[in-house]
């Protein structure tokens, strides 16, 4: 039988274990930090970021705290995107998703098995607040594509910035379907909101990011997104026990590209990529710029194009007189301009098993069948130009 | 004074509380899965990976369970590397590190503030086992560069494979210093062990991975590692309150590239990159192959080169007769061959502020001063060829 001494030792031991277990689980791990410091001590979570100033990369890293970013979709790419921004000390994050965490998500980074069943936005907010209590969060567990939610979503883009009465600085699309991308595109065109698109193909081995500036670059409705990707119709993917493949590697790389370009844009260093693709089979990385389509179906896109051209026309040019020639690509209906470091040979090398499209370039997402989204589908068809023609035109440039 | 009954009740109560606390924290969240299934249900953590078979990417995904990977250094790149492999369902992981988790690490992915003070390998093992209880772990909290630890490390490379009496399948170097890289290089040359090198520059905006096959590609001692990176001497970085910068983005991308190429190599799909660089400022990605240096200072490297040439000579060639010409690059002392998709212009575009080196190519790591590692430093100098000459020679190819 146990003696009093033994039992007391057991109690003390259990109390210590319990304190440990509770402490490591949910207690706040550090207080808020009011000002970012560059001091090099083990206890400073910002020392390695503030070092970017000393290294001559970023002029004023602290500015990151002034920025608000909305992340739409916190799955394989969006959750890692939100984590990277949180660890970088972004001022505020808005997260939108309507999905739940499942064990089937465990082949990608971020979520843990004990979160299965929780809403993704709640699980993400909880983890991210533990990682960095300095970041402000707003999370919405809803589908942005319904009419009511869309209005609310658009309201948060317009007024979700730090302080509550200014727009967010960037919207990041990390969704996995065409409808949600079109909803983000519509909202951002109307709000004149800069945003980044991201995507990973259904075979898990290609992905891309794209920077969309209303009026200045192609919007999501201007042209079918061009990417080295498979052409599987995403509508068919979740039916009949069939599911798309995914890999933590491809999604981690795409999230890394996305946040890196967000940091470059917000903190003004390096060159922001307008389109950056990733073909994991070949380690091939196409880059290009897509100009907006003057015949775009989205009326706000056309409005932004007019505004942009007016701004450009009045902006003083350095050593270049403003002439008719300033209107770019008048005879190029799609106004697509490839500014790419890749050669035609490289593009050809990246092609796969899609004989109906021009070598090297494939469609990232198939548009829904006419019965499901005739208006959107018409974006391509109303132009009187087939996708194949478009691809040929692009390659000819 | 407490009675035995009271103490027993207290013990029972504490045991229950502790069980609760541990359950939500670290109890296994799912049982082990004996066989990977492709069934598409929310509860199957492998459904999206097994879908790679259906998508025609990987022939036999289940084989991943037969492989063992050693990760040396579980910091910003190594921890994410280990997490990706764990989520992919790798058979076994060996982790080596001697560092502790600090709040100053929180600007990179993986570790959480509540783990501050724990050894990195212990914190990593705990998190990774929660994520995937099917993976087998062996962790070592020591510095591989001391004589005693080096011998043990090399023993684990030779016998750490699944089952206990075969070598690991790959070693991944995710360390942050020259000495540790040289130790891994030495061990892998001696054991004839394939390995991947990885690195991120001290200014946080460039990185690379490199695949090293003893005798077939350049070893780490054959040539100074070539990468678009800054030339800051890492010896000076941790002194005098100065610290290197780091970003979760760059490290996440490098870990993604690393594990993607590990998967391609182990599961035999796509093209494995021998060298892949990442310049985050320009979104520029140099690729190349480096052949071994016949005058390498590492005697095991030269032994492996001889063995490789003998194997090549006896291997039946398809439609090519074996002739003297098969001995490659006899008159190219460095035997460096660039097989790159990048053009000279692109290389030039990637160069920065290092006038003493040829445009576009810079040294990833500075070698220690002669007093610290004269023998290693001599690798370059004994060749009677300056680094500048070497770079010129490379660009001329």
Number of domains as seen in the coordinates of chain A: 1
Count the E strands of chain A: 11
Largest sheet, spatial ordering of strands of chain A = 3-2-1-4-5-6-8
What is the name of the CATH architecture of chain A?
A: 3-Layer(aba) Sandwich
Low-confidence stretches of chain A: 226-241, 320-397
**Helix residue percentage of chain A:** 25-40%
Family (chains A, B): Belongs to the ubiquitin-activating E1 family. UBA5 subfamily.
Pfam families (chains A, B): ThiF
Protein name (chains A, B): Ubiquitin-like modifier-activating enzyme 5
Keywords (chains A, B): ATP-binding, Metal-binding, Nucleotide-binding, Ubl conjugation pathway, Zinc
3D structure, described in words:
The structure is a homodimer of 397-residue chains. By secondary structure, the first copy, chain A, is an alpha/beta fold. Chain A has one domain: Rossmann fold, CATH 3.40.50. Chain A is 36% helix and 12% strand. Chain A contains eleven helices and eleven strands. Chain A has helices spanning 4-26, 47-54, 78-87, 120-131, 147-159, 178-191, 248-267, 299-314, 344-349, 370-381, 387-396, and strands at residues 68-72, 92-97, 136-141, 170-173, 195-200, 206-212, 226-227, 275-279, 289-290, 336-337, 362-363. Chain A has a seven-stranded mixed sheet, with helices on both faces. Chain A has a two-stranded antiparallel ribbon with strand order 7-11. The first copy, chain A, has a two-stranded antiparallel ribbon with strand order 9-10. In chain A, α3 links the parallel β1 (68-72) and β2. The longest helix of chain A has 23 residues, at 4-26. Chains A and B meet through α1, α2, α3 and α7 of A and α1, α2, α3 and α7 of B.
């Amino acid at each position: 039988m146990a003696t009093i001494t033994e039992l007391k030792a057991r109690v003390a031991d259990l109390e210590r274990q319990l304190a440990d277990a509770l402490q490591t689980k949910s207690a706040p791990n550090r207080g808020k930090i009011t000002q970012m410091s560059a001091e090099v001590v083990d206890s400073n979570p910002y020392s390695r970021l503030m070092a970017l100033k000393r290294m001559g990369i970023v002029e004023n890293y602290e500015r990151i705290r002034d920025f608000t970013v909305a992340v739409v979709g916190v799955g394989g790419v969006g959750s890692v995107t939100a984590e990277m921004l949180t660890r970088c000390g972004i001022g505020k994050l808005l997260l939108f998703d309507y999905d739940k965490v499942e064990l089937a998500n465990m082949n990608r980074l971020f979520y843990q098995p004990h979160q299965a069943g929780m809403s993704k936005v709640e699980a993400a907010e909880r983890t991210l607040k533990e990682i960095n209590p300095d970041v402000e969060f707003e999370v919405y567990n809803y589908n942005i594509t319904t009419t009511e939610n869309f209005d609310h979503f658009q309201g948060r883009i317009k007024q979700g910035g730090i302080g509550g009465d200014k727009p967010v600085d960037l919207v990041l699309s990390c969704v996995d379907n065409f409808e949600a991308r079109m909803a983000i595109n519509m909202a951002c065109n109307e709000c004149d909101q800069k945003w980044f698109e991201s995507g990973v193909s259904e075979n898990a081995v290609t992905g891309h990011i794209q920077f969309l500036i209303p009026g200045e670059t192609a919007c999501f409705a201007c042209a079918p997104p061009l990417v080295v990707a498979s052409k599987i119709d995403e509508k068919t993917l979740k039916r009949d026990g069939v599911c798309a493949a995914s890999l933590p590697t491809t999604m981690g790389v795409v999230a890394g590209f996305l946040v890196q370009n967000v940091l470059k844009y917000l903190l003004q260093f390096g060159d922001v990529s307008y389109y950056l693709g990733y073909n994991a089979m070949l380690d091939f990385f196409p880059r290009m710029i897509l100009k907006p389509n003057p015949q775009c179906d989205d009326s706000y896109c056309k409005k932004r194009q007019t505004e942009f051209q007016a701004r450009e026309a009045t902006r003083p040019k350095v050593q270049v007189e403003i002439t008719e020639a300033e209107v770019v690509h008048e005879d190029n209906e799609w106004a697509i301009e490839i500014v790419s470091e890749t050669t035609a040979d490289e593009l050809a090398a990246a092609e796969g098993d899609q004989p109906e499209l021009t070598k090297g370039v494939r469609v990232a997402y198939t548009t829904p069948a006419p019965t499901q989204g005739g208006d959107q589908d018409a974006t391509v068809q109303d132009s009187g130009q087939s996708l194949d023609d478009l691809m040929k035109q692009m390659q000819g440039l």
